[in-house]
Amino acid sequence: MQHIDAAMHMLRRRRTDYPLTFPQKGIILSTFVTAMIGGAWTSHKGPRKNFKWEDYILDYCTGFHKSQVFERWRGNEFIYFVLHLPTARHWVTVEVDIELWKINVYDCDSSVRHWTAMEPILKVWSNRRPR
Question: What pTM value is reported for the model?
Answer without folding.
Answer: 0.71
